[in-house]
Amino acid sequence: MNAARGSKVAVFGAGSWGTAFSLVLADAGNDVTIWARREELATAITQSRENPDYLPGIELPPSVTATHDVEKALHGADVVVLAVPSQSLRENLATWAPYVEDGAVFVSLMKGVELGTLDRMSQVIAEVTGAGPERIAVVSGPNLAKEIARREPAASVVACEDEDVAKMLQARVHSPAFRPYTSTDVVGSELGGAYKNVVAISVGMAVGLGFGDNTTASVITRGLAETARLGMRLGANPLTLMGLAGLGDLVATCSSPLSRNRTFGEKLGQGMSAAEIYATTRQVAEGAKSCASLRALAERSDVDAPVAQYVDDVVAGRMTPSEMMDDVLGRPTKAETD
User: Which CATH class is domain 194-329?
Assistant: First the structure.
């Protein structure tokens, strides 16, 4: 069931995923206002009816508008979608929170773990805004932005601890090409989304080094096992990590050339440093930022996490991709289910 016309959603973040999800919301019957950090981008979106910086050539419907004015974006919005880089959420949300309508539901599209605090994004939202779990949801799944924007069929998970809220949001984002499923497992949905970015960087490094499908399949599978170990330790439902927010997202991100994280890893494997890669793109590879925090979260939870450990070492310049592969193969052997 589509949202009733006049249902307003504010989307904070005018990057590729925020813009693509705005199309989903519009197709589902919502009026959408995108908040853009740069005023010139908001103006360009309004005037050209497309996002020239991130999704050029994709026409935005009349029900999608853009602004740089926080108060204008939030006025009347009963759903607030957050699609900014995870490491900037806390500071930004503290500025936006006073303008949020009472009782509005926050929806996180972000896939990261905060450096320092090791908080998931739902935890950051709760700490900054004081919102209860019934007002915080997560959307996660195999959702590459460019394919979503082209209205290619896709599915995802809408997770909220309050099942009724999850069902409400499910109706608000169910469009002809976007099929949402509900879940109450916020922890598993968030960890699956954050960890797959780190695994994708590792897969990208293998590709950049010239290795083939056997290697990448092995990395994906061991990455999933690592994600499940940490997720279960933190209370996630293991079935979540076998589903769209876990395995589904992992496969899409590790397999597609559209994946920013896999592309970041390929460039590392080809010999570029993280600093050199950052200098060549405005797109954020969340795994490059979250690998250190996921490694620390695993260490704090007493969970073996070699993928996060190695990716963190390579991104930080403490190890080369070739040294990483040699070290991985040299690790002591064990039973697969250990």
Answer: mainly alpha
